[in-house]
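new request in #modeling-help
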Amino acid sequence: MRALRRFLTRLRNLAARRCDDERLKEEMEEHLALQTAENIRAGLPPAEARRQALLKFGAVEAIREDYRAEQRILFVETLVQDLRYGLRTLRKAPGFAAVAVLTLALGVGATTAVFSVLDGVVLRPLPYPHPEQLVSVGVSPAALDPSLRGMAPEDYFVFRDQSRTFQDIGIYAETDTDRDVNVTGFTEPERVHALNVTHGVLSVLGIPPLLGRIFSPSDDSPGAPPTAILTYAYWQRKFSANPAAVGKTIIVDGVGRQVIGVTPRSFRFLDMQDLAVILPLQLDRNKTFLGGFSYFGIARLTPGSTLAQASADVARMLPITLNAFPPSPGLSVESLRKARFTPSLLPLKQDIVGNVGTLLWVLMGSMGIVLLIACANVANLLLARTEGRQRELALRAALGASRGRIAVQLLTESAILGLLGSIFGLVLASAGLRFLVALAPSSLPRIRDIGVNLPVLYFALGMTLFSSFLFGLIPVLKHAGVRAGVPESDRTLGLSRERHRSRNLLVTLQVALALVLLICSGLMIRTFRALTQVDPGFLRPAGLQTFRIAIPESDVPDDAGVPHVEQRIQDKLANIPGVSSAGFSSAVPMDGDNRLDNVFAADRAYASGVLPPLRHLLFVSPGYFHTLGIPLIAGRDLTWADTYNRVPVALISENFAREYWGTPAAALGKRIRIATNDDWRQIIGVVGNVRDDGMDKPARTDVYWPALLEKFRSQPLRVQRYATFVVRSPLAGSSSFVKQIRQAVWSVDANLPLASVYTMNYFYTLSMARTSLTLVMLGIAGAMALLLGTVGLSGVIAYSVSLRTREIGIRMALGAQRRDVMRLVLGEGMFLILVGLAIGLAGSLALTRFLSSLLFGVSATDPLTFACVAVLLTLVALAACYIPARRAMRVDPVAALQHD
Amino acid sequence: MAKQKTDVRQGTLALMVLKTLEVLGPLHGYGIARRIERISGDLLAVNQGTLYPVLLRLEQENAIASDWGASENNRRARFYRLTREGRKRLRAETEGWEQTAAIIGRFFEVKAEDFS
């Protein structure tokens, strides 16, 4: 309280710039007069009396200092003083200030931009209440493919009813076929993203609706009146944000559904993009059979439960599930048991963010290195500058400035540089961020939530303080201890070995750090090259236009009629001028389709209850392979006759053929099927492998079926109502071509909206998006490191040359040739470079393994990359030394010797 | 360490100032210095001047107030007097000081065997 009042008084004094010096002076005068009078009374002569009085009073100046200190906030005043002084000195050296601020701005900007991404994607908690309680629930068939995870309705029913660790659980369908719906009845038909959820999903997330209500158990019970929830964006777009939308009916895939609610604006379902409508997933407990696997689960843990407890809980319930429901036709409980389903629970955030954390931390680390290099550069600049200010510092010390006071002054100047640097850095960061977000539109989860926000500002501030301290400390350590006294002459000072050593050390460090970053970029370049050289299994993706349509039952009620509509569309497409061929399939390579199933072969013996390996299933039209350029290796393509006559045939990929029958030709005529009560299907052709999971993953084994099937997977008739069409044309991707395609489709059925209109190249580049992002970012980091490092090196050598002008002059006077001088200077530079390279190579060997999960086709310690980058860096660095070396060569011996 | 020593001395000095003003009523700086000097022996003998920053501080803390007045030799001098706040503080600090003194005193009386 007392301290506070004192502080406030002083603050007032500071503001009023009041100083009671007058009053003190008067009081002191009076005090001395009284004491002198007293002394005189005691018998001293007047002069001596006055002297004694002064002695007794003490050091007037010190007391005055104390007195002033009592009146003011000393810290603030010195700070203001230092700031003013610092700004003045910087203004006197605009070139130095500009270079230092720009260098720092680059470092802080790059670090901050990447940090905002890291923060938004990895660090920030999910936007739901108590996000730590949210888990993604799945089960994995450990014996078949542990990388698969999903949930089945039977799991959902058992987990919901019998769990001891879940507050609530819900499942949702995310398979591509179920995600898009046709919304009709407004203006033109539209195909939008939809999500099917059980009532628990939205309540688990804990976000209340903006309008209306969320699903209740009655919405997802079988036979309940159809309902729907709109997302904010869709409600805005379709209903112009009219609250009366709740209660209206929309037609989704031909079914009228009552709108019961609207989600709030900030609501995101996990990382799903462009979600328009949320529909209740009506599961019928009495029609549930074991063996479904195409759902995903999310749950909220009871407070206090851990993930491990929940996993144990699920492990306890899995056997209960197997006994609670009958198996799907063609499956036995025994075979499901042999598949060894095991719990696969993840924190929800990990499920969303995935392994992108590694990538972002690598980028963060590389930007951190750039910042370090920038700091080293500024430190070197400051060192050189402080050396030039030797006289000034010595003078200040002589006038009584303490070591600490000089240190604070120097640090304040660094902090001014740091602050200016980070202000520009933040500007750079927000620009860089826009670039980053544009660069990685969908390959990064949660990318749209990224921005320069409070944590990012804190980070930038922290980085600023950290780096100002870092580069400010080095000159302080070197110079704050300067002794009072006449400084030695400038020339000898500069040559002082010790001072030179710290500059050399900084430059060596810069070279080493730059080498690390360049090697990382080099490895990414090699990775990218390796990826682009992988044969995707199809030809020229840029010339392939793809789009999806769905033919709802309301449009074509008869299943058998669907392929006819699809063929008519395919033929219309093929007739567009310039189109060489067209086809359709249930999925195209790399679109994320993941329809897997166990495929039995007739000539293989399977132990009872053991399921055969999973294969990727596709349903294709005749002409699909030809359009994509997937080579037919053996046998023949499908025909429309096969399709309409429901001939039991199939094609398989080459790797599948080789795995089972040795050669593609040997596979022809063999028979396969999916469920034990299906018809066997004869293999009529073998086609080339396709890299479905991206260029860096091995090709999956594929099985291609006709688009119309009889007695398939225990169904009497199966058609492909969802189809992705592929059209090969040199015009693919142009808007006029898309318009032609739309007209072709609508000439067959005007109710069919087109969705996911992309060229094949889109999927191809998307599959490499992470690599390209890493490549670009590391390339930027490497380029900045190279630039800053060489500028730093060049500066140090130039400085050294300027200090050695006299020495060089003497050497030349004694007969040294220009070549010798050149060798002398380059030799000095070369030494620094080589030491830096050695440290950098050692560092790279230690650090590049963090990159290994991002590499493809190149080892993390690839000798070729290491060697090439080292040579490149040496050449660039030598070139940087060449500039000062040339100046050294032009030294005029006479002028150099006459100089001072 | 050196700084801490000053603080302790400033604290004692402040207490002495307050006590002096309580006993003697309004007084100018020189008068306070003389009183303290006479009673405390040589605590203030070296630097009488250090009193003035302490007076300023006490005034800022509202423990004392000051006005211009005429000194013995009829010159303008600043007279300090105790405020209500200062009286309260003096009482509290005297108590605290006595307590501390008593405790310290007891500790110095203790002999080795008392600890065993």
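bot summary: Residues 143-339 of chain A form one domain.
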